[in-house]
Amino acid sequence: MSLQVAGIEVRPAVVAPLDPGFLPAALFTREYRELAAASGGVPLRLALERGDGSISAFDVSVVPLSMGHLAATLFHVERIVKFLLWQRGGWKVYVGGPAEIGRHIKAVYSATGARKFDFEFMSGVYEHPFEVVVTTAEAVPQAREVTMPLGRHLDGCRVGFDLGASDRKASAVVNGEAVFSEEVVWDPRNASDPGYHYQGVMDSIRRAAAHLPRLDAVGGSAAGVYINNRVRIGSLYRGVPPNLFAEKVAPLFLRIRDDLSVPLEVVNDGEVTALAGSMSLGENPVLGVALGSSQAAGYVTREGNITTWLNELAFVPIDYRPNGPLDEWSGDCCGVQYFSQQATNRVASAAGMQFPEGLGLPERLVLLQKKMAAGDLLAARVYETIGTYVGYGVAHYAGFYDLKHVLILGRVTTGPGGEVILKKSLEVLRAEFPEIASAISIALPDEKNRRVGQSIAAASLPALKGDKK
Known about the structure:
The protein is α/β, with parallel strands linked by helices. Helices cover 38% and strands 21% of the residues. It folds into 3 domains: 3-8 and 18-144, no CATH class; 148-269, ATPase, nucleotide binding domain (Nucleotidyltransferase, domain 5); 272-454, ATPase, nucleotide binding domain (Nucleotidyltransferase, domain 5), CATH 3.30.420. The strands form 6 sheets. The protein has a 5-stranded mixed beta sheet with strand order 10-9-8-11-14, with helices on both faces. The protein has a 4-stranded mixed beta sheet with strand order 4-3-5-6. A hairpin with a 3-residue loop joins strand 8 and strand 9 (167-174). Helix 2 (70-88) crosses helix 3 (99-108) and helix 9 (341-350) crosses helix 11. The protein is globular, with a radius of gyration of 22 Å. It starts with a strand and ends in an 11-residue tail after the last helix.
C-alpha cells in the first residue's frame, strides 16, 4: 500500500489493521534522508535554549534547495522542530542553514502561525516570549545539557500518588515495599474550582497514609510541567480560570506540602514512568511511555539521571498523513491520538464498535478490555492497530533518543490487550527496522506495575529530612 505526503511516497510493510491511512513518520524520515544523501545533502543545525540556560542541538541534512523538493524539506524540518520542542523544550529555537527554511519555521511558529499553540505554550512554560532565530549553521550554539538524579529514596513510610485525567492513584510504601494501592475516579479537566484539585489530592494522600504507622514523605507525578514543585501548565487544570490558576493552582503542591509538614516532591508523570522502569530493570537508558487518559513519557539517561527536557510526547507527531486526527487542545496531529484512551476509542468507534450513549472514555476502555478478554476479534484488531502505532512510533523516537529499554505501560496496556500491543510493535520493528529491533528492548511491566507502578516510584522522589543522598 502506497501513502504520500509532500511528494514523498512510503509503503508500510505493516499496515495498521483498522487505520490503513496511518503514514508513519519514521518511514517518511527514512525516505527523505535517503533522498537528501543522494542529492548531496546540505547541513542544517537546530538548537533549543531553555530557561536554565541549557541547550539541545540537533543536526539535519536537507536536500539542496536548488534541486527542488522544497515542500518535502519544509515539511520535514517543521515536523522535526515540533518533535524537538515537545521532547526537549525551549523558549528560543535557532535554525542554522538555508535562510528560506529558517524563515518558514519562524513564520509557522509565531503568534499568528499554524503553530500558535506551541508558540504560546512554550512562552508560558519558560515565562519568556518564544522566538525563532534564523542564522547560519556555524552560528548555532553548541549543546549544553544538564542532568540530575531523580528519586530512588526508599527509606521510611511514604505515600506516592499519580494524577491522571480519569483517575488518581495512590500507594502507601514502607521501605520500598507497597503495602496499599488504590485508584479513585475523578474528572479534573472539567473542574473550574481549584479546591477540587486540592481536596482530591489530599483525599488520596490521606487514604493511603491511613495504612502507614506514620507519614515521612510524599511524592507525586502528574501530567503537565512542574518546576520546583510549582505548576507551570497542565491539561489537568484546563478548567480553572487563568486568574485562579495563578493564585491557587500554581502553588497547589507547596500548600499541600506545608499542610502535611513533610517533604514533598511532584514531577511530570512521564519522568516517574521512566524512573519506575529504571528502578525495576536496574539498567539504563530507559524511555517510559504510558498509554493512559493521555500519553505520558519520560527518559532516564545512560547514567541513570533525568534531563531538563519536557518529554511531552503527547504533542509529538508520529503520523504524517495530511488529514490525520487532530488533538482538540493543540490543533495538531500528535501522539495523544495514538497512545491513549482517546486512541482506542477513536480506532474502535471508527471500526464500528458500539458503546452505550454517554459512556466516558475510561468506561469505554473497560468495555473494550472486557471484549478483548472474551475473545472479540474486533477488539483484538483495535489493539493490533495500537501496537502498529507503537512499533512505528518507537522507531521514530529512536532518531531522537539514545535507546536501550522502552517500557510501555498505563491503563491501555492492562489485560491481554497489552500483550497484543507488544507483539505487534515487535513485528513492526523486525519487519521495517531490524537494526533497531536488535538494539533495544520493548517490554511491559508486570500487571500490577502497569497500573500503579508510577505512584509507587513517585513515593521515592523526596529525600527525608537530613538525608544527604
